[in-house]
Amino acid sequence: MTNPQWNDVDAYLTDRLVPADEALTAALADSTAAGLPEIAVAPNQGKLLHLLARTQGARRILEIGTLGGYSTIWLARALPADGSLITLEYSDRHAEVARANLARAGLTDRVEVRTGPALDTLPLLEKEGTAPFDLTFIDADKANNPHYVTWALRLSRPGSLIIVDNVVRDGRVAVEDPTDPAITGTRAMFDLVANEPRLDATAVQTVGTKGHDGFLLARVTD
Asked: What DSSP element (H or E) covers 164?
């Protein structure tokens, strides 16, 4: 569900605060041309991710759900020159588009795109002994949100930040719906976070070009 006024406000905010950027515009255009679903974060949301990563002082970022690399570019640009980002993408085709978009943005030196189901690639990160991530952004299949948060916590450190996108679902998250895996998974994620003493969290609902949705923000405390 969208509202013309929400779109107008998003356009106003983006025009004032998020200058046009050739690499980001091209990433969206090429993703659409390749047939990827048009579900990337909005420009002002991408800028929010960028500012959160910079405020966090993130040197290592994990992203679960790459799509065409639009949010990846926003996050990677917040890293210092020696920082790194690992992004996990289920689809080989999506990963191919993302790699091209990241190369055009000049970010291949600090971004690694790994393909395959994230619940297969996340254990590999742990097995490799990867250093803790300072920030994790989760924007993948919603049915597995509780599993992704569990892994993000395992791969974090005290002070790390975990962000989960699309947690309001047009307001439907407030009502249990066993027929919708996205609602079931998101509600299970909220239950997990609410009962996890190592996470201090809140969630915010948003409206805009992406409709009525929201995000969860959780800080690892211990």
From this structure: strand 161-165
